[in-house]
Design brief:
The protein is built from 13 helices and 13 strands. The protein is of the alpha/beta class. Helices cover 43% and strands 16% of the residues. The relative contact order is 0.14. The longest helix has 18 residues. The protein is globular, with a radius of gyration of 19 Å. It has a single domain, classed as TIM Barrel (Alpha-Beta Barrel). Keywords: Cell membrane, Flavoprotein, FMN, Membrane, Oxidoreductase, Pyrimidine biosynthesis. Pathway: Pyrimidine metabolism; UMP biosynthesis via de novo pathway; orotate from (S)-dihydroorotate (quinone route): step 1/1. It is a peripheral membrane protein.
């Protein structure tokens, strides 16, 4: 009941500023033993019925946080305290990059949506690797069960023909520090990136990563994140490629470049300009893509569903359509820190 009032206040300030203010405040609370216990008891939900085993990993619950929220692995302790079963960090690129010019993140409250054109702003793989090393040491001491995924991409200045090299660098550097990988070729905010979703380009990147992966003592799950704007023919190529290169899973979906069906006035949307749209408006299309991929792969390739998940009912719909896990992002912004607990409680109620 308190969060809607807090949200209305926070929405008066720039989104990126609010993001860091809120997460740093949570960190301060998490550093105090008593407050940390209160946070955990308030927002975590544990139950055997929530546990999942997907692509060889054990998840304490199926609710994860999508890439783009904790780009630099700054807030893993804090996000774990809010009950997330897994967190996907990144998108990580080989070299640090500032991303696109600000403002680059916009709220559409009438649609419960966001538009972003962040542009893979991150500290670079070396800095993030070091931060994950500290996290893993803490994790070993505390017995944390949080699963951490590494979402990897290419630097803006890297030409597409050399993109495979960027993915190799990130994969190799982070291999010992994350539990699974997601190859991101579907962000609309890096020029030319989505061209890498074409079958031959994808095959080159994924086959190379799998060669490295299978040369390790124990391979890491490798997933591909796709856009909701692909045609059925392109999705057929993705499904075929998933078997060909032995992908461990898919993430469906990223943000959309579509602006159809929005309640926000057209002139406001046009003034915002380019970027990926997320939240409620992408829910239906993301579910269509999820359902189609599950059918085309006969349920043999696990899918993490992402797109428009705000409530327990939203989560159930994705799981009923064949998702193995779900991810929230925009829903976290609009629903607040109780989103994981609320979804988990809803999932248990139906059992």
């Amino acid at each position: 009941m308190l969060y809607p009032l807090l949200r209305s206040l926070l929405f008066n300030f720039p989104p990126e500023d609010v993001h860091y203010f809120a997460m740093n405040a949570l960190r301060s609370g998490n550093n105090a033993g008593l407050i940390k216990n209160i946070i955990r008891s308030s927002f975590q939900c544990r139950h055997p019925l929530l546990e999942r085993n997907v692509f060889g990993l054990h998840f304490k619950n199926p609710v994860g946080l999508g890439a783009g929220f904790d780009k630099n692995a700054l807030y893993l302790n804090e996000l774990e305290s809010l009950g997330f079963g897994f967190v996907e960090i990144g998108t990580v690129t080989p070299l640090p990059q500032p991303g696109n010019d600000k403002p680059r993140l916009f709220r559409l409250p009438q649609d419960k949506a966001l538009i972003n054109r962040m542009g893979f702003n991150n500290n670079g793989v070396k800095a993030i690797k070091a931060r994950l090393g500290v996290w893993n040491n803490q994790k070993a001491k505390t017995g944390s069960s949080l699963v951490v995924g590494g979402n990897i991409g290419k630097n803006k200045v890297t030409p597409n023909e050399d993109a495979w090299k960027d993915y190799e660098i990130c994969f190799s550097e982070l291999f010992d520090f994350v539990d699974y990988f997601v190859v991101n070729v579907s962000s609309p905010n890096t020029p030319g990136l989505r061209e890498l979703q074409e079958k031959e380009s994808l095959k080159k990147i994924l086959s190379h990563l799998q060669t490295i992966n299978h040369g390790k003592a124990k391979a890491k799950p490798l997933l591909l994140k796709i856009a909701p704007d692909l045609t059925n023919e392109q999705l057929d190529d993705i499904a075929s490629l998933a078997f060909e290169v032995e992908l461990d899973g898919l993430v469906a979906t990223n943000t959309t470049i579509s602006r159809s069906g929005l309640a926000t006035p057209k002139e406001k949307v046009e003034a915002i300009g380019a970027g990926g749209l997320s939240g409620k408006p992408v829910k239906e299309r993301s579910t269509e893509v999820l359902k189609y991929l599950v059918q085309q792969t006969e349920g043999k390739v696990p899918v993490i569903a992402s797109g428009g998940i705000f409530t327990g009912e939203d989560a159930k719909e994705k799981l009923e359509e064949g998702a193995g896990l779900i991810q929230v992002w925009t829903g976290f912004i609009y629903e607040g820190p109780a989103i994981v607990k609320n979804i988990c409680k809803s999932l248990i109620t139906d059992k």
